[in-house]
C-alpha cells in the first residue's frame, strides 16, 4: 500500500520511491527495470529519469525523478491516458474544458 503522507510510493508491491532513495538503489529496483523510459543527464550534476505506464491507483502515470549528486530531490507524477495530450504541440485549453 502507498503511504503518500510519508512520501512512499509503492509500485507492484515494491517501495519504488521514498525520500532516502539514492540513484544507485533505484537503478537496482524492479521498478526501474520494468518502467524505465529515458534519462536526461545535465552537465550540472542533475540527472532526470522518466518512467512510463506506471500503475498507481488503478490508472497509469508518467513518473519523473531527479537526482543531484545521487540524492533524490524531485518526484513528478502525471496522469497518462488518451484524454491527455502527449506534447505541447497537441495541447489546448479546450481539451480540458468539459
Structure characterization notes:
The strands form two sheets. Strands 3-4-5-6 form a four-stranded antiparallel sheet. A two-stranded antiparallel ribbon has the order 1-2. It is 11% helix and 45% strand. The protein has helices spanning 23-27, 30-35, and strands at residues 9-11, 14-17, 36-41, 46-56, 59-68, 71-80. It is built from two helices and six strands; from the N terminus they run E-E-H-H-E-E-E-E. The chain is mainly β and 98 residues long. The radius of gyration is 15 Å and the shape is globular.
Keywords:
mainly beta, 98 residues, single chain, 6 strands, four-stranded antiparallel sheet, globular, two-stranded antiparallel sheet, 45% strand, 11% helix
What is this structure, in a nutshell?
The chain is mainly β and 98 residues long.
SSE string: EEHHEEEE
pLDDT averaged over residues:
85
Unreliably modeled segments = none
From the helix content, strand content and strand pairing, which structural class follows? mainly beta
Query: For the CA atoms, what is the radius of gyration?
Result: 15 Å
Strand order of the largest sheet: 3-4-5-6
Could you estimate the helical fraction of the residues in percent? 10-25%
Number of strands: 6
Number of helices: 2
| Relative strand content | 35-45%
C-alpha geometry: globular
First and last CA, distance: 33 Å
Strand count, sense and closure of the main sheet?
4 strands, antiparallel
Amino acid at each position: 500500500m502507498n503511504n503518500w503522507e510519508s512520501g512512499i510510493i509503492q509500485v507492484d508491491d515494491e517501495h519504488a520511491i521514498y525520500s532516502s532513495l539514492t540513484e544507485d538503489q533505484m537503478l537496482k529496483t524492479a521498478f526501474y527495470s520494468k518502467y524505465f523510459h529515458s534519462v536526461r543527464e545535465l552537465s550540472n550534476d542533475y540527472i532526470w529519469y522518466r518512467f512510463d505506464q506506471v500503475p498507481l491507483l488503478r490508472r497509469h502515470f508518467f513518473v519523473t525523478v531527479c537526482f543531484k549528486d545521487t540524492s533524490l530531490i524531485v518526484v513528478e507524477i502525471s496522469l497518462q491516458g488518451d484524454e491527455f495530450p502527449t506534447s505541447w504541440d497537441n495541447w489546448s485549453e479546450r481539451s480540458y474544458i468539459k
